[in-house]
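Regression test case RT-17, inverse folding.

Input:
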């Protein structure tokens, strides 16, 4: 079983989701199934089938989260001394040299990655292109949308 790197914040979020799914969602679904059962014939009972399907999805996600937690290798960047080097969990402040746009990404594990929140998977093209580089480096990264040129303006461990 391979360990998956995850930030402390990422681990806390999935643990919160697990508590929600087990303690709030699971009892709601059980109640919905009981309610649907009380309506009689289960073969043509859409509410019953919908509730059973929701139960299946919920239990699947609980299993998935338990697996993530079991494989988690928590990396707390606030405790690492890596001044200026891009590592897993660090936040990288970039300037796109082609557009002048300033952007930042936090480098995270697979289960935390969310581009809308600027959380980028460390194995993605940009993640791979940044890891190991240093503050002030110029970086050329091949992305699915073409070659991007960045300057690393700053690296923070927050």
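Golden output:
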């Amino acid at each position: 079983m391979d360990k998956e790197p995850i930030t402390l914040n990422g681990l806390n979020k999935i643990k919160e989701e697990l508590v929600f799914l087990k303690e709030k969602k699971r009892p709601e679904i059980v109640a919905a199934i009981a309610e649907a059962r009380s309506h009689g014939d289960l073969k043509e009972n859409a509410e019953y089938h919908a509730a059973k399907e929701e139960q299946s999805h919920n239990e699947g996600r609980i299993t998935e989260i338990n697996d993530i937690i079991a494989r988690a290798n928590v990396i707390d960047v606030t405790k690492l001394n890596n001044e200026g080097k891009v590592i897993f969990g660090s936040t990288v402040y970039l300037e796109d040299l082609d557009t002048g746009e300033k952007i930042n990404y936090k480098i995270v594990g697979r289960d935390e990655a969310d581009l809308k929140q600027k959380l980028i998977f460390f194995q993605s093209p940009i993640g791979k292109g940044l890891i190991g580089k240093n503050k002030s480096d110029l970086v050329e990264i091949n992305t699915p949308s073409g070659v991007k040129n960045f300057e690393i303006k700053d690296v923070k461990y927050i």
